[in-house]
Specification:
18 strands, alpha/beta, single chain, 21 helices, eight-stranded mixed β-sheet
Length: 575
């Protein structure tokens, strides 16, 4: 039976240490909070506040931890520092004391042997998505010699704190830190390269993926120094360049821009909330052209959804499909969607009728001749798209804005199929278009500033939020999301955890509202593979190469929810 560990010492009162100490106090335990930095102690006092019936005493002396039944080491992610702290704690404490390290990138087994407690140390890795320790899934990592009763003691303590423990192996980078830190480092690279502004990156990931906060705001919340230390540990241990910290991250840490705890990082922080500043400002754009009527090319789910959004917003809308039958099917799909809106009380019958009156569906491209803006929304095939843009160039009036809703192909290739590349931009809607609030607006090196301004203004008139970026495969969301999903498949291949465990760690303990394998099944494994191939073909980085397991499943017809077979479809699957 697991022991109730009533007196716990927490050594290191940064973001993680303070969060753990606060949870322990709230559970009724006596906590000895240790840090040699008076400023860290003051910060922990402010963060922890009144957390419950347990008592807490702050001290700058490690020797005060000697009477603890459990010692939690939460010092910075540097091997020498962790070894020294754990070794001193082992020398001070009794033979029955249990030890925990919060390392996310260092080998737990090596730390245990070097500190002299190979049978009494457990790794406990938690990621704080918003800088707070609420209900989380945490990884517990035993060494090969960890005594079963010690592991049970730690697991029961974790459960008593309201967290869900998942046992993982001591591999090069735990699941949560490996997936999350690579994703965050990619976001820093995107910002560093001025591909998109801070606000565009964070807004895109929040609205496009349903995140509580964007990656740069999340880095501020967890601490840029904490992220840097963990990335350096992961890179040193694995040699994987995806973990090589971006130069701008090092520079910000050197300058003391550590995020929320320092009051300044990617954002300026006041009373725990980010405040706007010039860094997030959108680039200056030209004068928007007037857009009254909108055309949509395509007849699939995305095209019908875009047409519905346009018609509902008050714009005369023309949808052109490749046959009368497909045009009729698209109109019927819009009608069904609007009728469901009436049934659910989201719009009136009159509003539905007015929207349908504004929608014209046809098979002749000439029907687009009078449109002020056209959105191409056909299959992700560059040859098909180039052919359509050549046709649009012939039938659309001079000055009409031509856009593509591609998510994985270069916009400039569409633009070059026309004699007016300055009038072409990317307008990436997310599926389902009537529901998702985000539109990514991408401009090529040839796009006129007033065209970019027109697409942004039109999207806002449709009730959407826009983010801007340069024309590049993946834009913002796909360029950050799909490498993360591919990385998760790689960890599965390496037997780092089951699909259920990895999903639980990432959805309840880290970044995304849905685990990576659940999300892959929803998006479609075939779609994901196609996007990952495009990213790898464009950038050539080794870690962007599609995971063999993903290739194999798609070849076998496992495409996710739509085929009834995927990583988690049916739910019992643990491929």
């Amino acid at each position: 039976m697991a022991r109730h560990l009533s007196t716990v010492a927490v050594i290191g009162l940064g973001t993680t240490g303070s969060a753990i100490a606060g949870q322990l106090v709230g559970s009724g335990r006596r906590v000895i909070a240790v840090d040699t930095d008076p400023a860290a102690i003051d910060g922990a006092r402010r963060r922890i506040g009144e957390r419950g019936p347990g008592g807490i005493e702050f001290t700058g002396r490690l020797a005060d931890a000697a009477e603890a039944e459990l010692v939690v080491e939460a010092v910075p992610e540097r091997a020498a520092v962790k070894r020294a702290v754990l070794g001193e704690a082992v020398a001070l404490c009794g033979p029955d004391t249990v030890f925990v390290t919060t390392s996310g990138g260092l080998p737990v087994t090596e730390l245990a042997f070097e500190a002299g407690c190979p049978d009494r140390l457990v790794g406990l890795h938690l990621f704080l998505p918003d800088g707070e320790a609420k209900e989380l899934t945490v990884e517990l990592v035993p060494t090969p010699l960890t005594v079963d009763t010690v592991f049970d003691d730690v697991r029961e303590l974790v459960r008593g704190l309201g967290w869900h423990p998942v046992a993982t192996a001591d591999r090069a980078g735990l699941i949560g830190s490996a997936l999350t830190l690579a994703y965050l480092n990619d976001a820093v690279a995107m910002h560093e390269q001025r591909y998109a502004t801070r606000d565009s990156i964070d807004t895109a990931m929040s609205l496009g993926c349903g995140l509580r906060s964007g990656p740069l705001a999340q880095l501020d919340a967890i601490g840029l120094d904490t992220a840097l230390d963990t990335l350096e540990a992961l890179h040193a241990r694995t040699g994987d360049r995806r973990f090589l910290p971006r130069p701008s991250l090092r520079q910000m840490v050197s300058a003391g821009l550590l995020g929320r705890k320092a009051g300044r990082g990617f954002y300026s922080w006041t009373d725990g909330s980010p405040s706007p500043d010039a860094d997030g400002a959108a680039p200056r754009q030209g004068q928007a052209r007037e857009v009254r009527s909108i055309g949509v090319v395509g007849s699939g789910t995305m095209a019908a959804g875009i047409a519905e959004v346009c018609a509902r917003s008050g714009h005369p809308t023309v949808l052109v499909a490749r046959s009368d039958e497909r045009a009729g099917s698209a109109r019927a799909a819009v009608d069904r969607s609007l009728s469901r809106g009436v049934q659910r009380g989201k719009l009136t019958a009159d509003a539905r009728g007015a929207a349908m009156d504004r929608l014209t569906c046809a098979s002749d491209p000439q029907a687009l001749a009078g449109c002020d803006l056209v959105v191409e929304a056909v299959a992700e095939d560059i040859d098909v798209k180039r052919r359509i843009f050549g046709e649009l160039d012939r039938v659309c009036r001079p000055g009409a804005v031509l856009t593509t809703s591609t998510s994985s192909l270069p916009v400039v290739e569409c633009a070059r199929a026309t004699g007016r590349p300055e009038d072409v931009a990317g307008m990436h809607f997310f599926n389902p278009a009537p529901v998702m609030k985000l539109i990514e607006v991408s401009h090529t090196v040839l796009t006129s500033p007033d065209v970019t301004a027109t697409v942004h203004a039109t999207a806002r008139n449709l009730g959407k939020r826009t983010v801007g970026c340069r024309d590049r495969i993946g834009f913002i969301v796909n360029a950050l999301l799909f490498p993360y999903l591919n990385h998760a498949v790689t960890l599965l291949q390496e037997c780092r955890g089951t699909t259920a465990d990895i999903d639980m760690i990432m959805s309840n303990g880290n970044v995304f509202p849905m685990g990576p394998f659940q999300l892959l099944d929803v998006v479609g494994l075939d779609v994901s593979l196609a996007i990952q191939r495009s990213l790898y073909g464009t950038f050539g980085e080794p870690w962007l190469e599609p995971a063999p397991r993903l290739e194999q499943l798609v070849a076998a017809g496992y495409t996710g929810r739509k085929s009834g077979k995927g990583f988690r479809t049916p739910a019992r699957s643990t491929l």
